[in-house]
Structures are given as C-alpha cells and as structure tokens.
Amino acid sequence: MLPSSCDTFVALPPSTEGQFIIFGKNSDRPCDEVQEVVYFPARDYGAGEKVECTYIEVEQVAHTYAVVLSRPAWLWGAEMGANEHQVCIGNEAVWGRESADGDEALLGMDLVRLGLERADTAEGAVDVVTELLEKYGQGGSCMEDESGFTYHNSFLISDRREAWLLETSGKYWAAEKVAGGYRNISNQYSITTKIDKEHPGMREYAQSKGWWDGKSQFNFATVYSYATTARMEAAGSRYCEGKKLLKKSNGHITAETMMAILRDKDSGINMEGMFLTTGSMVSVIPTNLSLPAVHYFTATPDPERSVFKPFIFVKHINALKETTSPSYGPNDPVKKKPRFQSKPDRKHELFVKHELVAAIIDSHKDRGTKITEFMRELEKKLMTQMEKIFSDGIEEPDLFANLFSRSVQQEMEAYNKS
Fold this sequence. Notes:
Strand order of the largest sheet: 3-8-9-10-11-12-13-15
CATH architecture: 4-Layer Sandwich
Helix content: 25-40%
CATH class: Alpha Beta
Largest sheet: 8 strands, antiparallel
Radius of gyration: 20 Å
C-alpha cells in the first residue's frame, strides 16, 4: 500500500497570534476504521509491573500522567493526544531504505501514548520514545487486518515552550528542535542537516550500509530515504501545500487557522477515499504557565463535517463515554492469535449518530447545509467560551470536568434538531 496518510502541524510564536502554541493533526486511516477519544487519569504503579501495549508488554513506570488520546479503537496506543503537562504528540508513517517488515514490537502509536504518559516536556518525550525504541523496537501491522501494513514513524512533539521533530528508521533516529515559527510533517523524512539529538550509532550504521560516504555533510532525509522519491509524491504534495497554508497566515495563526487547514480538501490534507481523515485534533497551548490549555477533538471522520470539541485537564474528569468504543477484552480478535480473523463493531455513540448525519449531508443538499450550519454555530459558541478562559483563567475547575462530554451531547442534540 502506498503511503497516503496524515499531516501534523505546529505553530509557535512569533508565527501565532498572541503567546500561544497551536498544534494540529489529521489522522488519516482506513475508511472503515473507528477513531475514539478517551481519557486516562494519572496513576501510580508498583515495582515490576508491566503494561500491555498493542502487541507486546513493556516495563511500567512508577507514575503515569493523565492523558487524552485520539486513537484507532482496536489498539492500545494513539495517533495523537496530549497530557496534563500540555505535551502534545502526533505521529506519521514514514518509509525509507530500512525495511519496516519486522516482528511485532511497539507500534508508533504505542510510542505516542507512552511518550505522553511518561514525559512532562517535549524534549523529555523525545528521550522516552527513543529509549523505548532502542530497547523494544518498532514493528507489527498498523491496520486491523492481515495486510501486513507496516511503517517506521516520525513524531511532532510540542509543549509550552518549544517543539521537537523526531524521525526514526528501525531503531535509529534523529531529532530536531523547533524553537519558533511553524513546522509541518507528512509521510516523508524531513530532518536534513540540523540534528540536535541522534542515535549514537546512526551515522556509522548508514555508512556500513553504503548510504553515506562518511565525508560529505550528513543529511538524515537524504541518507535514510528511498533513493527514488516517486513513492512519496502524495506525501510531498501535502507537505508543500501544508507549508503554504501555514505561511499564508504566518504571524496570525490561531486555532481557527489550524482547523481550516485540517479541513482543506483541495490540498489533500483533509483526505477522502480508501484512506480518510478519521479524526482530527487542534490544541491551543498558552506559553503562560498559569493559563490552561484547550485541546479540541472531533472523534468523527472528515473535519469539514465534524465539530471540534474542547477538552481541558482538570481534576475529577469522568470517562468520555460517548466517544469510547465497545471493549472486547481478551476475546478481541486483535488479542487472539492468529490475529485479525474478524472485525467486531467498534462504533461509539457519537460515531453512530455522526454516520447517519453524514449520509443525510451527502444525499439531501438543503438539509445537509442546515446541519453543517448548526455544527459550525455550536463550534463557534464553544470556542468563544474557551477564549474567555485564556483571559480570565479557571476559577472553578469542577465546572470543566465534563466539558468534552457535555460538548459531545450538545453536538448530538444539534443533530436531533436538524
């Protein structure tokens, strides 16, 4: 299967309007896949405990941070998410000279969740992910079937101060710090000669494979990418279009800007077809430590016909029931070997209602327009409410404990009205 999925963006001052970092991602996945939005509170663990990821167990840490995740409902990890320290991570599939057809290990999506659960800064997440990568490796099918769809991973990671781009090839990796401006990634290597951290054996390995002569300036993307870039045309086009869209609003990038980019279909960023934008995320992170960050998630396919709903980390958050898919426990076909012998129904409550509405939008133009207007009005109302907390802060945190779930309920009510 040709690479054809995902775009991740980050904008930092001075490219943003005000002292905010804006993070965004479209998760582009198989069109029949359900993406859920789930919350896990912080937890303490005893010595020697393990955590079961999608395919393998790894050693658990003494404490994990609270996380909110947007993830394909069949696996343990996540395509994107944030933690209570306002670290955000999104991953991309990348292909290069090194084969990605290894044994089952950690998926890139597992590494996203592990990084969020264990790191309180963006640079700390780079360290967490690379240590796990070197210890356990990456590998295994990234689709809920027997297709053997495998890839390496790149990650865009941000916090309240900076962002990091981390790109991997097998257990080897390079990382670049982004201190200001904007950056976007698609399904191709993009770290070139500015490398701020790296696997200690990365250059030596490339030289041993004949990919680098050991004398010319080391360029990670050139050395580790395919010799021919024909396979990367779609990703390259989306990357260039995304960069243009960011540049167009440079100095004035807001949450609305990022949402508009994620909704853009002409660029291919909002994907249609066999690979579809199944979930979207936009985070607004103030550089002021005293102010809360707001993380918006759709939990539904196609951001053009979805509502970005806000989530804020406060104490006493309840499970996000309306966007949590059914659990099948040890009987899940993903857990049984041979894997993927069947596909259970993973649709959550919001997904079911959204699916019906999407069909109406497609088949009844006037009614569809009205529904879309309702959705945009709700989104605008929610965002206006969030703007207030950026100036006033939060006086009563408990009022925001069910913010996301309440917003989902309002969305479903809007469907009913239409």
